[in-house]
């Protein structure tokens, strides 16, 4: 049973659970409350599924301590993430989708394609390193590049930064940022950081100012420019 789990595609429901646990916890543990909220499932259904995932060798689960991925579970999660982010890239670059619409479409498509299709797609796209939102795409070997960026909200006034990633999947938020050009690849100067409410004011390359609320500023990841 253990050998076939890694070789055969996971069902869409199991794949979703594994990917969500990875997104929430990485190499740590995700609480059942967090998992249930992300997947909109009842506690009883969640407990049953976590037990099944543990039987399959994908998850280590202890009641009241949450769930963490096994080595095999992490490998499966990264396979799913790779498919998803490559599909997003294809939808944006070749099918005319906007960057705020690719996530939901990729969620539907990622369960329908094989690993063979995924690797052919990667070759067709030229083996991109990042998806349309700037998130790193895991390699075919399961290796995920280390993230060296940090939230815009942590930059002090006067800092000049390069936007590397937007860590938000909500279409209205992505549309808002896209309309203002606050996307990966842009350079910004932080003009003000208000301690009272966390609002960050930045100026773009055209000299236009943008004020971003605390949560939004924390979802934009950047690197400092020298």
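^ structure tokens above, recovered residues below v
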């Amino acid at each position: 049973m253990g050998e076939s789990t890694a070789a055969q595609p996971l069902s869409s429901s199991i794949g979703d659970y594994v990917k969500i646990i990875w997104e929430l916890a990485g190499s740590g543990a995700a609480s059942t409350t967090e998992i249930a909220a992300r997947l909109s499932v009842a506690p009883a259904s969640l407990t049953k599924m976590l037990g099944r995932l543990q039987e399959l060798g994908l998850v280590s689960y202890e009641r009241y301590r949450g769930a963490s991925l096994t080595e095999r579970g992490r490998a499966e999660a990264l396979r799913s993430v790779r498919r998803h982010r490559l599909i997003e890239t294809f939808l944006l670059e070749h099918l005319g989708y906007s960057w705020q619409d690719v996530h939901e479409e990729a969620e539907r498509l990622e369960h329908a394609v094989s690993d063979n299709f995924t690797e052919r797609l990667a070759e067709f796209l030229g083996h991109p390193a990042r998806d349309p939102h700037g998130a790193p795409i895991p390699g075919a070997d399961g290796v995920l590049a280390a993230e060296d960026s940090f939230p815009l909200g942590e930059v002090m006034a006067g800092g000049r930064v390069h936007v590397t990633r937007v860590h938000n999947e909500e279409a209205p938020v992505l549309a808002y940022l896209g309309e203002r050009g606050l996307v990966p690849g842009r350079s910004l100067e932080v003009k003000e950081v208000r301690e009272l409410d966390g609002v960050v004011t930045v100026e773009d390359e055209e000299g236009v100012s943008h004020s971003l609320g605390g949560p939004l500023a924390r979802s934009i990841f950047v690197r400092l420019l020298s």
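Residues 12-72 form a domain with the Arc Repressor Mutant, subunit A fold (CATH 1.10.10.10).
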